[in-house]
Batch of 2 targets.
Target 1
Amino acid sequence: MKPQWLDRLAWAAALALPVAFASSGPPLGGAPSPGVVASAAQNGPRTVWDGVYTGEQAKRGEDAYKLSCGYCHRDDLAGGFFDDGTGRAPALAGVRAFDSSFSERWSGRSVGEMLTEIGSIMPLDAPGSLTLPVYTDIIAYLLSKNDAPAGPSELPPDIEALGQIRIGPKPAR
Ligand code: HEC
């Protein structure tokens, strides 16, 4: 059964989107000047490359992933065919993850959108069956496995806040 937060929050995230675009600085794909980067880090939108989850949270996410996702996507996130050969789950980390790469697949979207989308379709055999905090931890784990650095505070289990964190190409540092 579809949990209520998914319905309510899916469109909350959709509504938050134009606002985020209107108030944000340069598009993620661009190459903003150092001055712009500094001010964006202070009060502008954050990206998944800014250290938006903790190592401890990713570890919790790993446990939840192994329980609810690993039997299809594999514990090493490499993806593969189902045991009965009826389907194939895509890789969720590595250069060919999501049939492109993590940043290509979700580029221009927010973590909130990524979460509502994944929550709506996964686990494939029981979509929306996990709680929002558990999905959030799993997202932290997926970020950790796709090269995004950990930081001082956890990814909040709050779709609106997650809608403020953008996904884009890994910045050259
Ligand atoms: C029963 C097997 C199964 C389980 C369990 C499962 N998945 Fe999947 N997953 C799939 C398949 C198959 C696809 C490809 C679906 C498609 O292309 O329509 C997929 C696709 C995905 C995608 C790619 C979506 C996209 O649009 O790029 C993500 C992300 C994902 N799964 C995450 C998860 C997470 C997180 C979990 C655990 C909460 C999970 N999956 C559990 C089978 C599974």
Target 2
Amino acid sequence: MTSNFDAIIIIGAARPALLSPRASPKPARPSPSSSKLFGGTCVNTGCIPTKTLIASAHAAHLARRAQDFGVHAGPVTVDMKAVKARKDAISGQSRTSVENSLDNLDRCTVFRGQARFESPTTVRVGLHRDAHGNDPHSDPHADQVLLSAPKIFVNVGGRATIPDLPGVHDVPILTNSTILDPPLGRVGLTETEVRAAGRPALIATHPMSKVGRAVEKGETQGFMKVLVDAETKRILGAAILGASGDEAIHTFLDIMYSKAPYTTLQRAMHIHPTVSELIPTLLGDLKPLT
Ligand SMILES: Cc1cc2nc3c(=O)[nH]c(=O)nc-3n(C[C@H](O)[C@H](O)[C@H](O)COP(=O)(O)OP(=O)(O)OC[C@H]3O[C@@H](n4cnc5c(N)ncnc54)[C@H](O)[C@@H]3O)c2cc1C
């Protein structure tokens, strides 16, 4: 028997799952779930686990530098099992939250299993069972279900596009976010891109060694940079490499979204002592890009 839906969304996971929103009331579904890796790359192997591991590395780094801050912490060792357990717990919470939010989505049924197209509008799903033989689908005796919908979305991620730059294929390149310490926050055009565009522009840079908050934290590596269109006064791009750069960059992002001139941001009074408070100062140093 075919179950009809308004749309079918095939999502990737370690064990693929399939979402089927429909206009009819939400049908009852037995639990528990057999799928373990809802959330795709970000939640399971990408953004969240890496930032969790970085937090542990940062804690070890700070502990080893404790004496620089007048703190005596003794020999520092890292328990990698505990680090991994923390990472798994945080990633797991996120995964469960994604899974629960899909399970509880109104007018949406989640089928956990391998999806196979049978026609442009039908998909057969081989259902997964858990260790107890339970089946997440409404029919506990079925091994598979046939689903039909006029629209089927395949959401199994994509691959990064590599631009055809001279020499780019001769060097190792990263196609995912790079993990940096200190962090790098960057928006809009780079200095190189602004130069290539040939538009009259203004530029300013400010070293993190002259940002009070960075000095207080003992994290003075890096700099801030901003590029502005000399005629429209709109910000073309900005980068903050250094302490809290990945957070402070949002100040630029917001003003760029609002399409306001840089002078609006230059007049703002930011909270002291923060990295962001130096952004108006940076904008006050703008000079023609030569
Ligand atoms: C180490 C790392 C760190 C990252 N850190 C960041 C970060 O800090 N910030 C940020 O913005 N982005 C980060 N990313 C990138 C981010 O994870 C991806 O941009 C994002 O997850 C893409 O989402 P998506 O839905 O397009 O695909 P994905 O999340 O990749 O989801 C696709 C899923 O489909 C599955 N799949 C593929 N083909 C099939 C198939 N035929 N059948 C069944 N399943 C299939 C895949 O296994 C995957 O689980 C990071 C990536 C990595 C690898």
